[in-house]
Each structure stands twice: as structure tokens, then as C-alpha cells.
Amino acid sequence: MSSSYPTSCLPVLTRRLLPATFVLAVLAGCGSSHDKNDTEPAPEPTPTPTPVSPYVDARAGDVLKVQIKELHPTQPSVGYDQIYYHLGRKQPDLNRYQPTEAGYLGDDDEDNYSRYIYRTERKRIDDYCADNGQGGVASFTQTGTRLIDSTSYTCSLPEPTPDAAADILAQLKTVVVGPGGTLYLTDGHHTFTTLKELADGGEELPVWVRVAANYSGAETQASFWQQMQDARYVWLEDPEGKAITPDQLPDRLGLDTLSDDKYRSLVYLTRGMGYDNGGMPEFAEFYWGSWLRENGPDLSQYKLTDLARARIEVKNGIVSARSGDSTDSYVAAVRDAALRMVALDDTATVSGGRLAGELGRLDAPAAAKDWNDFMEDEIWRADTNSSGRYRTAGKAWYALKYRECGGAANTQPACWLQP
To answer: Is the pLDDT confidence value at 289 over 80?
Structure first.
């Protein structure tokens, strides 16, 4: 038997049968350097230092260029129909119109296929430039532009800086710097979720944001979130109106993490009728949504896949639903919600202590025609007119078509995709 046999494992009976000289030799090896190496703990590895965030020292008013994946939500939900509208409006469905023998002709008013693709692509780039404080689209590679490829288009203004004009800075979405330099998005969840879900966008797409505050000095996560709540930089209410805690917030943007708030979608569609969204406080449309959830209309009583028109009439200064039009279509829900909103006084409390005037409440219309025309253009009309020509459709039309076509990107593929 080899003398290298592990001595601690020799059974008693075996030791009794071995020659005494061998046993002594084996026992002499106990506690030797060979055994010592087996029992000494390995030295602890040098810890890898935590990388310092480049945003930890950012100050209020700074403008940051970041990737969408670096932004953390401060709300649990979005209105899917608002995002579906943008996804449907900004991505051409190549099966919508058939090309002629001439092929793609650009913005040709005689060719539905060409004009549809041109205006869809242009809208996508134009909005991306505007959302990032860079004016609008100056040029783009027709039928080949991709947001993620900045060489395929140019914006009309340069990248924004803290010294940019006030109207440029006002267009930028806002963030709060949290512990460790983590960026928490306080405005722009719908915009940036749309950009992430676009076929030529994604989580690495660059966006420009403005710093609203820096709370990176908070000693604990609890104290940080208390600061956020005190400043009204977080929305802690789920789509059913139930309170949640900060640790229930999603950790990233996307339709696979943010839930659907149907009342938030409804509020978006009342924009320009029930309220004006210019210069409003953070989460203004969620305040309106919370109020509508409690004060009607009850969306369970409406057919949210029906776009039958629902107009108003004004008689003797009194605004009401027009007799004979739909009472339960999605359009009717938008009309009824807007009528409830304009019926409030500016001093009426909406939700969370916010007043209707703070939240952009508009006055009731003095005449029916402008309101009805606006609803047709902005909400329910199709993308082809009575003469068979392409036109921009209403927001709800795009949202429903996109939803019927594919739905949420996290559950099934969409048919509105880039070639």
C-alpha cells in the first residue's frame, strides 16, 4: 500500500492488521504540511470595486444623453392605446397599400403606397427629433431610415445642452438622479416605451433628458422614495386605483413590464377637448385617469373595439351628446369623458389634491362643429377618405388596428414592422 494514502481515513481494523512500522510512519504524517494545506482557508479574493455612475454628480438643469435601458420607471403602468397609436402611426404596414409598377415614388399625392410609406417614416423621425429637443426632421434616407442608425437621418437642430433655449429644454423628458447615480424617469414613460418597442428603436437607442433633481445623497432607499413622494415625482397607484409601494415598480421600461391602464389611454384621447396638456405637472394625466375611474364613464359599459361616431350638440349654451349617435362605442367613451372634464370648475379637486385648472381643464365648447370635426380628425376616422386617397387616420383607429394586428410586443408579434 502506498504511503500517500489519506491517513485520516484509515479504518481502525486496517490499522490493527498493518505492520507496526508502517502504522507509525503513517501516523507521523498526521498534521504534516500536506494535511495543513487541506484545512487552511483560501485567501479571500480582492473585491471588484462598484463602478461609479457617470450621473451621480449631475445637477438640476443638466442635459444628459442616455440609453433607454438606463431609465427606471416611476409609475407601474401606461396607457397601451397611446403607445399602440404611435407604433401603428410611425411604422408602415407594407400590406396596407399595393405599389404600382413605378414602385416607390416618395410623397406622391396620386400614389397611396408611396405617400403612406413616406409620411409614416417621416413622422417617426420627426417626432424622435422633437422629443429630444432637436427640432424636427431635416432629411432622412427614404425607405431605409432607422432610428438606431443616426447616419440615416438628420434633425434640424443640434443636440440640446443646458444652455439651449427655454422652449427646447421644455420639450425634454425629465429624470431624478437616485442613489448610486441611478436615473429615475419622471416624465416620458409613453414616449420612451414607444421608442423601445419600435422595430428600429430598442433599449440602446439614445435619448436626451433633463435632470429635475438629484437625490443621490439619500442615505437609504426608503428616504430616497420619501423625497420622491414629497416632490410628487412618483405615481404609486395601479391600473385599478389601488396603492402600491416603490418596490412594486417595474425596473425597466417596456410593454413586458408596464401594465395597461385603460383610463390613462382614455385621458390621452380626450386631449384637446377635455384638457390641454401644455405645461402640466408630472403625472397630470394619471390624476385625470384616477378621477374618471371614480366619476365615470364606466369603461366596462362601452365597446372599446367599436369606433362608431359619437358627436355633441349645443343648444341654448348647453352641451350634450348628440341624439342618434353611438352611446357605447370607444368614441362615445372619449366624448363622455371629455364632457365630464369640461363640466368641472377650475377650482374643483381632481385627484391627489390637484385642481382641474392645474391639470389643464378646457372650457365647454361654444359650438358643436369644431369639437365634432376635431373628434373625427383626431380620434376615429380611417386612413383612406371617401375618394380612396390615403390620409392620416385618428389616434383610436391606429390603436385599434395595431391591437388587432399584433397587440403587446411581449405577447405576440406585431404586423406593423419595418421591411
So the answer is: yes
State yes or no: cis peptide before 297, omega within 30 of 0. yes
CA dist 376 to 302, 314, 393, Å? 18, 17, 9
Decide if 237 contacts 243 (C-beta within 8 A): yes
List of domains in the chain: 7-39 (no CATH), 53-260 (3.90.1530.10), 262-380 (no CATH)
Confidence of residue 196 (pLDDT cuts 50, 70, 90): very high
The pLDDT > 70 percentage for the chain reads: 85
3-state secondary structure the chain: CCCCCCHHHCCHHHHHHCCHHHHHHHHHCCCCHHHHHHHCCCCCCCCCCCCCCCCCCCCCCCEEEEEHHHEECCCCEECHHHHHHHHHHHCCCCCCCCCCCCCCCCCCCCCHHHHHHHHHHHHHHHHHHHHCCCCCEEEECCCCCCCCCHHHEEECCCCCCCCCCHHHHHHCEEEEECHHHCEEECCCHHHHHHHHHCCCCCCCCEEEEEEEEECCCCCCHHHHHHHHHHCCCCCCECCCCCECCHHHCCCCCCCCCCEECHHHHHHHHCECCCECCCCCCCCHHHHHHHHHHHHCCCHHHCECCCCCCCCEEEECCEEEECCCCCCCEHHHHHHHHHHHHHCCCCCCEEECCEECCCCCECCCCCCHHHHHHHHHHHHHCCCECCCCCECCCCHHHHHHHHHHHCCCCCCCCCCCCCC
Q: What digits encode the pLDDT tens for the residues 142-191? A: 999 999 999 999 999 999 999 999 999 999 999 999 999 999 999 999 99
d(CA 81, CA 75): 17
Strands 137-140 vs 312-315: parallel, antiparallel or unpaired: unpaired
Q: For strands 71-72 and 183-185, give the pairing.
A: parallel
Rounded distance between C-alpha atoms, residue 173 and residue 159, angstroms:
14
